Amino acid sequence: MSRILKNYFVAKTNQYNKIMKKQKVTAFVKELNVRMMKEPIALRYIHILGTVVFFSSVSSLVILLALYLNQRLQTSLFLVDDLSPNPLTSPPPHSSGSDMADEELMTRASMAPRGAVMNEAGPKVAFMFLTRWDLPLSPLWESFFQGHEGFYSIYIHTSPEFTGEPPESSVFYKKKIPSKTVEWGRSSMMDAERRLLSHALQEPSNARFVLLSETCIPLFNFTTVYAYLTRSTRSFLGSFDDPRPMGRGRYSPKMLPHVSLSDWRKGNQWFEISRRVAAGIVSDHRYYAVFKDHCRPPCYIDEHYLPTLVNKICPEMNSNRTVTWVDWSRGGSHPGRFVRKDIRVEFLDRIRFGSNCSYEGEVTNVCFLFARKFHVSTLEPLMKLAPYLYGI
Ligand SMILES: *[C@@H]1O[C@H](CO)[C@@H](O)[C@H](O)[C@H]1NC(C)=O
Ligand SMILES: *[C@@H]1O[C@H](CO)[C@@H](O)[C@H](O)[C@H]1NC(C)=O
Ligand SMILES: *[C@@H]1O[C@H](CO)[C@@H](O)[C@H](O)[C@H]1NC(C)=O
């Protein structure tokens, strides 16, 4: 019996292979039927049994092979995983942090305490510089920070190709955070801002967070800026409803149901926020995903995501105005840039005292603490005016 079956198997396998090669499965089945009709009953049963056994062994073989391959694949995946650095215990890789490291960074930052933990000196202000390259106006900032150690922290996000490091005596020495390429107006810019916030949140004494560019200048001395920010119960994140095409016109109904047109806000990218708002921003994944998908140029995510997010999650914590002055009077999509000949006391004082706004429920004419965009050629005249501007 077993010999018959064995022979039968060999014959059937050969036959099967031959026929499969010709891709004539239907013909094979037909032939099998015809041949089985001609055979006596007993032989026909053996035939049927043989066919069943044959096909079930083939399928078992296929299943076993699949299981084996799956096992191999999983093992190799785990091996790769074991070899890669553990983001919890090893520092994020410098310059080219992976998305994994970014995720881990945000997660850690969103778990940081929401209220600032006071050191003996008092709360700190985190100055976060989002730059393309170096800081051309750094001498001005050096004199701004001079003598106020313990009241500020500095974080710099540059282009990853920039490897320059200021001298050890500089306040900017070793303040760069692991950075990635930023495309202006795209979500990679928001990623950089979130990266800066995540780093700054991990210092528990940081209570306020300012975002600055390399073209920003301080308009007052450190003492004034520090007091203005740390005494404010509200954040300074520009947020308004702009009915024009460059405002509401950039909204997409595809953002529904998460973001409606009445939630939609616009504002200056350069913000100053409290620790609670900063923690709210790095913890947000829901709205950020919606903006990444549906706010692409000509919708500029840096002008809409944070103003809209803060309007959604904590509107009562925002003053809705920025403390970073910029000149939009020239029109166009880029603000005015100032050069050496523009630097005069009257011009600077107009920015410093020329507007009215509300501060902690009172009207004040000190509405701006920083201004942009200042070309490197303004450094020399600004340094000359420093004693007047900063009382130093
Ligand atoms: C800022 O705007 C929000 C609405 O977006 C409002 O709830 C809040 O009271 C405003 N803040 C101030 C200080 O007016
Ligand atoms: C600011 O308010 C003061 C007094 O209330 C007023 O004299 C001045 O013209 C206002 N300035 C601006 C730019 O509105
Ligand atoms: C800072 O500027 C204010 C006026 O804005 C001035 O009263 C103060 O003396 C200055 N502080 C220092 C340390 O220069």
UniProtKB/TrEMBL annotation:
Membrane topology, as annotated, equals:
Single-pass type II membrane protein
**Can you tell me where the transmembrane regions are?**
45-69
> What are the subcellular locations of this protein?
Membrane
Q: Pfam families attached here? A: Branch
Q: Which UniProt keywords apply?
A: Glycoprotein, Glycosyltransferase, Membrane, Transferase, Transmembrane, Transmembrane helix
GO terms assigned for molecular function: glycosyltransferase activity
Q: Which GO terms describe its cellular component?
A: membrane
Q: What is this protein called?
A: Core-2/I-branching beta-1,6-N-acetylglucosaminyltransferase family protein
Top-level taxonomy: Eukaryota, Viridiplantae, Streptophyta, Embryophyta, Tracheophyta
